[in-house]
Amino acid sequence: MQWLSAAEAVSEYVKDGQTLYLAGFTHLIPFALGHEIIRQRRRHLTLCRATPDLLYEHMIAGQVADQVVFSYAGNPGVGLLPVFRRAVEQGTIGIQEWTHFEMVARLAAGAAGLPFWPLNTLDNELTERRPRPRVQSPFTDDQVAVVPPLVPDVTLVHTHAADDAGNLYVDGLLGDIREAVLAGRQVVASVEQRLPAAQIRATRLTLLLPAFRVASVSVEPWGAHPSYVFGQYDRDTAFYRDWDERGRDESAVESWLDEFVYGLASRADYLQRQPPGRLSALREAAGQ
Amino acid sequence: MTTPPLTRREEMAVVAARLLRPKERVLVGVGMPNLAANLAKRLHAPDLVLIYESGILDANPETLPLSIGDPVLVRDALATISMLDLFSNYLQTGWVDVGFLGGAQVDRRGNLNSTVIGPYDHPAVRLAGSGGAADIAACAQRLILMLPQDRRHFPARVDFVTSPGHPATGRRPDGRGPAWVVTDMGLYDFDSTGEMRLRALYRDETVEAVQAATGWPLAIHPHPTRVPPVTPEEYRALRALQQARGGPRR
User: Fold this and answer.
1) Pick from A145, A209, B170, B218: most CB atoms within 10 A?
2) Is the CB of A121 less than 8 angstroms away from the CB of B135?
3) Angle, alpha carbons A23-A190-B87 (nearest 5°)
4) What is the pLDDT of residues A4-47, one digit of tens each?
């Protein structure tokens, strides 16, 4: 485990053509690391996420991806993902689509080092298009559907804290994070803060991943904005609502990327550019 | 004080709330299902267990969340668990009594499309896709579907079967599957063959109007009724829920 800046971590661990999983279901979405991947202009990535969310909107618009592997391509609580939608409708990006259960089952197989994972759900039109084999139980007469493992080259994650050794800790909603980090060959993390182990263990933060499974950790306050960090800052719902319109206009997306990604050297600059009062209101809403 | 009447969408939430029974475990989505489930919890079913697919067990939100992963759902929840834990050990094993699903299209068997309008490989409109919907449709003990009703949402054939309903051959043999459809025109159940059937109409609707908004010859219950009007208690609970602006909990 090494302490790196986000720029150093992406430069060292994220390579063109890799399969990446940027984890976090609504909560703890690693925007700082994702924006760094755009800024360093990685190409031909396969981007996996149960919910592509606005982060993959940014990354698709930043032309880093050839393919998206996903299970729900919506803007949570708002509507659809306009950049993703345009790319799929125009055929400029490949997709591989699963249900939520299948996605996390694939990660579970990857995390456990197994060749497949069984699940007991019905066939549907997705499983007709992308056949989902069944295997015979050696113990009973049952046949069980199976999905293949998903093993990202790199899983990128943002968490509440790391201790000095690089153990990662979280609180609140887990979503797909635990399976995603355990499945990744390498885990690149950003954290809100670096804290002494004794202080972390005195709180109710729970271990997400031991340091020996972590490649690098970067301290990036607000690294999940505009998603949220439970107890630290709330979700920037205005940003999510505004994206519905902004994302429909290609030039508006380009100028947003110019202003908030390409034109900036770091996350600190990104925070400087937020509308006055926006970040403090999100802190306050989280009870801080 | 003026009391603005409920919109038809709000009335749909009231009708759906009445379909939930005390102590049931409900897997809730955002939008109308969320409104309906939270309303039921404040009326006849205070012990309703709200489950959200992001991995939240027994949520007690003070205010209505924008998304199913919002912090307001986490603050007073019994627990947050991983999605694998939720889907494998609670949904797959039949512990979820009621699943709520919406979509872009539904057909007479309760097949739902939330994936695509037009051909999958050349979509006219690319929608969000399954999320947990296909898993919920497969595993929840019964399903409540909520959609606005017109020929676009109620076609003879859905463009894509994201979440399967009752098979063409009859009702699901395991007793699960679509139980109710709540629309802005009426309430539907599924007959013994698994066919969607008009059960009740809102007070100002007619069978003719409902048929005209449906892309197939609609089955009609022998004695269709009227949806009972929203009670003052339901009205107050719904408005209170919408106006709640609880500050952060410390």
Assistant:
1) A209
2) yes
3) 25
4) 999 999 999 999 999 999 999 999 999 999 999 999 999 999 99
- Mutation pick from A174, A280, A283 vs chain B, by most beta carbons of B within 10 Å, is A174
What pLDDT shows up at residue B31?
Answer: 77
- DSSP characters for A157-203? EEEEEEETT--EEE-S--BTHHHHHHH-SEEEEEEEEEE-HHHHHTS
Residue of B139, B140, B142, B156 lying closest to B105 (CA atoms): B156
DSSP string, chain B: ---PPPPHHHHHHHHHHHT--TT-EEEE-SSHHHHHHHHHHHTT-TT-EEEETTTEEEE--SS--SSTT-HHHHHT-SEE-BHHHIIIIIITTT---EEEE--SEE-TT--EE-SEES-SSS-SEE----TTHHHHHHHSSEEEEE---STTTS-SS-S--SB--S-TTSS-TTS-SEEEEE-SSEEEEE-TTS-EEEEEE-TT--HHHHHHTSSSPPEEEEEEEEPPPPPHHHHHHHHHHHH-------
> Using the beta-carbon criterion (under 8 Å), do A126 and B130 form an inter-chain contact?
yes
Q: Confirm or reject contact between B215 and chain A (CB < 8 A).
A: no
**Could you tell me which residues come within 8 angstroms of residue A51 by beta carbon, excluding any fewer than 6 positions away?**
A25, A26, A70, A71, A72, A73, A74, A76, B131
> Residues of A with CB below 8 A from B131's CB?
50-51, 71-72, 74, 99-100
Residue A229, both tokens: 């960090």
Q: Residues of A with CB below 8 A from B69's CB?
A: 25-27, 76, 173, 175
pLDDT tens figures, A266-276? 999 999 999 99
**Strand, coil or helix: A112:** helix
Q: Which residues of B are catalytic?
A: 53
Kindly state the tokens that stand for B73.
């759902």
Indicate the average pLDDT of chain A. 96
Q: Are A148 and A106 in contact (CB under 8 A)?
A: yes
The tens digit of pLDDT for each residue in B191-242 reads: 999 999 999 999 899 999 999 999 999 999 999 999 999 999 999 999 998 8
Q: How many CB atoms lie within 10 A of CB A244?
A: 14
